[in-house]
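// run 5 | inverse folding | seed 20
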């Protein structure tokens, strides 16, 4: 007797959303662009809503993350995580280590919200990152990095 799997069974995610979130977050905490990209779909979209253009595709995302990690030093303060059938929302605070022009270092805190959609294969299909614009602008202005 031959057993075949339906397309839905064949594309069932291998990790629960909380487990996928945990693995994904490890990639961000350890600054591992390859791990982050490996959890994204080939055609995924990453959009940091700070006025920049969305990043399309796994390879472009890997490069984008490497550039972010090289440019900024930040850590996370975890907030709420809310899970739906195919998505999660994650409130967090970015804690940035910055320096004043001609002055000493300072720490900036910027509230963030991630909205992540997962496809049927259990890959991140889209990540939208919403930033508290006033907090980010104030931090970057103090550091002389305002756009």
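// decoded
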């Amino acid at each position: 007797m031959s057993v075949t799997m339906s397309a839905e069974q064949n594309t069932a995610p291998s990790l629960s959303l909380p487990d996928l979130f945990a693995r994904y977050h490890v990639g961000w905490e350890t600054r591992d662009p390859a791990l982050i990209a490996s959890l994204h779909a080939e055609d995924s979209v990453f959009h940091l809503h700070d006025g920049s253009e969305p990043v399309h595709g796994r390879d472009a995302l890997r490069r984008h993350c490497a550039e972010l990690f090289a440019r900024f030093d930040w850590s996370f303060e975890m907030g709420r995580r809310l899970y739906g059938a195919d998505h999660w929302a994650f409130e967090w605070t970015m804690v940035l280590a910055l320096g004043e022009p001609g002055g000493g270092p300072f720490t900036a805190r910027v509230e963030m919200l991630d909205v992540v959609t997962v496809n049927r294969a259990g890959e991140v299909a889209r990540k939208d990152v919403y930033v508290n614009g006033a907090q980010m602008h104030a931090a970057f202005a103090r550091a002389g990095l305002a756009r």
